[in-house]
Design brief:
Blueprint lengths: L2 H11 L10 H6 L4 H25 L8 H23 L1 H7 L10 H11 L4 H31 L1 E2 L10 E2 L13 H27 L2
Antiparallel strand pairs: 1-2
Helix pairs in contact: 1-7, 3-4, 3-6, 3-7, 4-5, 4-6, 7-8
Length: 210
């Protein structure tokens, strides 16, 4: 188990959103305020980590033919717990994220890591894989939230700072409102994916030239 390598993969070289290009729906739909980004990122990280641990722990007794169904049962159990906790303790977040919390059950990031990693590795490695992949996912959400909120609404820290309205940085007539719409999510995400691919390609070429 190489924690440094796992952390680098989760954050950069195998980032679930910018490199694996999975979990797109929630990434584009909820990244309009920092409150949403932090809430969704923490929820996915918790569910991903716990699911990884349980699936890794029972992987040797899961029949191969029904492994996907078992993955979904485990994930759905944790999603239900997290959804109920959010409704009870952070109702504003539950209302803001809406259906995207229950939809974590079929989030490709969680199912993908269950199939690609936790089903084939030990509990400790799966635990850290969940943490690091979750951090990578959350980081992308926060970057997208900051960009879309700042350029689209002219504020920073929406849902958290200044009574939930965020701190206004740009006058109301300057923001590009389109960036808070779904098309804005596509544009911002496309730019981030392009930037990540360019950086990875440059790093790879640099290593090959040594």
């Amino acid at each position: 188990m190489n924690l440094g390598k796992q952390f680098k993969e989760g954050l950069l070289t195998n980032n679930p959103v910018l490199v694996q290009v999975i979990g797109m729906c929630s990434t584009m739909a909820i990244t309009t305020s920092m409150f949403n980004g932090i809430g969704m990122g923490v929820a996915v990280t918790v569910i991903l980590t716990l699911s990884n641990v349980i699936i890794s722990a029972i992987r040797k007794i899961i029949p191969d033919k029904i492994r996907i169904a078992m993955f979904i049962v485990v994930i759905a159990g944790f999603v239900t717990c997290v959804d109920l906790l959010i409704q009870a303790f952070v109702p504003a977040l539950s209302a803001s994220l809406g259906v995207f919390i229950p939809l974590i059950v079929v989030n490709c990031i969680i199912l993908g890591r269950a199939e690609a990693f936790s089903y084939k590795n030990g509990v400790a490695a799966s635990f850290f894989d969940g943490i690091f992949q979750g951090i990578g996912y959350t980081a992308v959400l926060l970057v997208m939230c900051i960009i879309r909120e700042f350029l689209g609404a002219g504020t920073f820290g929406g849902g958290i700072l200044n009574g939930g309205d965020g701190i206004r940085i740009l006058p109301e007539q300057f923001p590009i409102g389109m960036l808070t719409l779904p098309v804005g999510g596509f544009l911002v995400l496309a730019c981030l994916i392009a930037a990540m691919q360019w950086a990875l390609s440059k790093s790879k070429n640099k290593e090959e030239s040594k």
